[in-house]
Design goal:
It contains 11 helices and no strands. It has 175 residues and is mostly helical. It has 2 domains: 34-144, no CATH class; 145-175, no CATH class. Helix 6 (68-82) crosses helix 9 and helix 8 (112-119) crosses helix 9. The longest helix is centred in the first third of the chain and has 21 residues, at 2-22. The protein is elongated. The N and C termini lie far apart (107 Å).
Length: 175
C-alpha cells in the first residue's frame, strides 16, 4: 500500500512540475507604448525645428504665440531649471519641447490629452511639465516685472477694484 501511495504522490508531483515547465512565457510588456518610444523619430524636435525654419510664414508665432527670438531668449533663461538628463532606458524630453508644450497649453488651453498626441509625450508627464515650466518662468522673469507704484495703489483703492487689477496696473501702466 505504501508503494502505491508513493507512486501516486510521485505521479502528482511529476504532473505539477511538467505543467510548470510547459507554461508559456508571457511576452514582455514595455512600460511605454510605441507612440512614446518613437517620439524622437516621428515628431518631437524635428517638429519644432521645422516650425522655426518656417517662421517667415508665421507658423511658429501662431503655434507658440511668440517669435522664435523671444522663445530662444526665454528658453536660455530657464534652460537650467527645466532640463532633465537622459537615462539608460529613454531619452529625456528636451528643454525646447518642455517650453513648447507649456506655451502651447497656455496659448490654446488644449487638454493634456490633445497635447499628448501633438508632442508624443504622455499626458501624465505633461501634467508635471506644465507647472514646472510655469514655476521656472515666474522665478526667472519675476525680477523683470515692474511693481505698481504708490500712486497706482491709491487709484486702485479709490476705485475699489480687486488686487488682480492692481497687479495688472503695476505691469502695464506707469502713473
Amino acid at each position: 500500500m505504501a508503494d502505491v501511495d508513493s507512486l501516486i504522490v510521485a505521479s502528482a508531483a511529476f504532473v505539477v512540475i511538467a505543467g510548470l515547465l510547459k507554461r508559456k512565457r508571457k511576452k514582455k510588456r514595455w512600460w511605454t507604448t510605441a507612440l512614446y518610444r518613437n517620439r524622437l523619430t516621428t515628431r518631437g524636435p524635428s517638429f519644432l525645428s521645422s516650425m522655426v525654419e518656417e517662421e517667415n510664414d508665421g507658423h511658429f508665432k501662431n503655434f507658440t504665440r511668440m517669435s522664435s527670438a523671444d522663445f530662444n531668449f526665454l528658453l536660455e533663461a530657464i534652460r537650467d531649471d527645466i532640463s532633465r538628463n537622459d537615462t539608460k532606458f529613454r531619452k529625456a524630453v528636451t528643454a525646447e519641447e518642455r517650453l513648447a508644450i507649456t506655451l502651447r497649453y497656455l496659448a490654446t488651453g488644449d487638454s493634456y490629452t490633445s497635447l499628448q498626441y501633438l508632442f508624443n509625450v504622455s499626458k501624465q508627464l505633461i501634467s508635471k511639465i506644465v507647472p514646472e515650466v510655469c514655476r521656472a518662468v515666474v522665478k526667472t522673469l519675476s525680477k523683470h516685472v515692474k511693481k505698481g507704484s504708490a500712486r497706482c495703489l491709491e487709484i486702485v483703492q479709490c476705485l475699489g477694484v480687486t488686487e488682480e487689477v492692481y497687479r495688472c496696473l503695476g505691469v502695464t501702466a506707469e502713473v
